[in-house]
Design a protein that fits this description.
Length: 231
Amino acid sequence: MFEKINDKVVKADLAAAGSVIARKGAMLYYTGDVSFAPHQIPGMQAMGGAGGLMRLAGRAMAGEHEHTMLAQGSGEVHYGFAGLEVHVVRIEPGATLRVEASRLLANTASLQSSVVSVLSSGGGGGGGLMGALRGAASGTLTGQGMFTTQLSGQGAAALLAHGGFLELSVGGPNPIVVDPQAFVAAYGAVNTELKTALSWRDAVGRGSGEAMQLQCTGQGVVYIQASEEKL
């Protein structure tokens, strides 16, 4: 599906992988018969076209969503972005990958894609629109956005990170607690919940993991980058 050429470049063989969706500007070069077309994330128009709160959420999602392009054909396309390191995750049926939109380089179009609230996968925030709006304040403190891309089905995704990837297994007796700014993605049945480590007054203006922490429980894998730098 995706083949790593080096730490910063992946190749997609469209004849084998099928169509590929990648962030705009990520295509480095291609060979063979390949065509490109703009691609829109499912549900963005519907979310942005309702009443006041829905329009607010729709505008936020549109602002956070990376513009993407669909590659189709029978050639080979090479992808990379801004010299960032790349990691390939294979997604099996029944599992989900939740990844920050800015850290998703490309994915096979065979995967089902949706947008979820940053708090919809953990306790306390709730899903849907209200969960998204509750997540706005947490997103401001942590540097995360209100929304996360969720991929499911069977296929593969290529992720981006500053300074390399760490792969942490979730499922032991103790939760994995990470800095939200270092969080890249979670794969499998992983629940994520934002925890306030300091008082609200102390936390305001501090986006580091010392103020807000992302607690990961369940079964699966969490990917983090070796940096707090935003993409």
